[in-house]
TrEMBL record:
Pfam families: GATase
Designated gene of the protein: hisH
InterPro entries with a match to the protein in the record: Class_I_gatase-like, GATASE, Imidazole-glycPsynth_HisH
Database matches in HAMAP family: HisH
Keywords of this entry: Amino-acid biosynthesis, Cytoplasm, Glutamine amidotransferase, Histidine biosynthesis, Hydrolase, Lyase
Record's protein name: Imidazole glycerol phosphate synthase subunit HisH
Length: 220
């Protein structure tokens, strides 16, 4: 019987250790082996793919392309469950304001920078960019259907964010979760077999682990 794997894509720009350890932690009853790989053939052979990302989007896109992994990720996005995390989510859209960077174009929309200079939070403190901390996430249900990767995670659960840019999908149907930091913005996107989050599930305690577990069992 062939080996069933979930590939965490290693193109040199992700928080690989914490992401892979979190996925391994929840994979014990999934029948899947978790591999961290820089080999396109292993991404192609995997049953599921996790695309992490950390740092500047231009650097992430360059490293994904130069590593030879971009085509394998695009093939995975067309045919199997794929989960993007942080910049790995931003890369799925068409374009980022960060250094005028084209994305993978898998979900129509743009990545925008927070413009919060001089604005105060409700407690009187200034908004800081990057945003670092816990936010409450509202699970969107376009067409009245809540995304199955949320599973048992309650609406309004808290997740951990570190980012200066946020996504704005063109179509509301691709928004799977929203939160607020100066304004309301999309923090989870979904389309067909793709699900992605701006926040870090691996840094978000039990609810974050639940999302990875649900992704491993999701059959889109």
């Amino acid at each position: 019987m062939s080996r069933r794997t979930v590939a965490v894509v290693d193109y040199g720009m992700g928080n690989l250790r914490s992401v892979s350890q979190a996925v391994m932690h929840v994979a014990t009853d999934s029948g899947l082996d978790v591999i961290v790989t820089a080999r396109p053939e292993e991404v192609r052979a995997a049953e599921r793919v996790v695309l992490p990302g950390q740092g500047a989007m231009r650097d992430c896109m360059r490293e994904l392309r130069d590593s030879g992994l971009q085509e394998a990720v695009l093939e995975a996005a067309a045919s199997k469950p794929l989960m993007g995390v942080c910049v790995g989510m931003q890369m799925l859209l068409d374009h980022s304001e960060e250094q005028d960077t084209p994305g993978l174009g898998l979900i129509p929309g743009r990545v925008l920078r927070f413009r919060l200079e001089g604005r105060l939070q409700p407690d009187g403190s200034r908004y800081k960019v990057p945003q670092m901390g816990w936010n409450q996430v509202s699970q969107s249900a376009p067409g009245g259907v809540r995304h199955p990767v949320w599973g048992e995670v309650p609406d309004g659960a808290w997740f951990y964010f570190v980012h200066s840019y946020f996504t704005r999908p063109e179509q509301a149907i691709h928004t799977a979760g929203e939160t607020e930091y100066g304004e309301r913005f999309t923090c989870a996107v979904a389309r067909d077999n793709i699900f992605a989050t701006q926040f870090h599930p691996e840094k978000s305690a039990a609810h974050g682990l639940a999302l990875y577990r649900n992704f491993l069992h999701w059959n889109p």
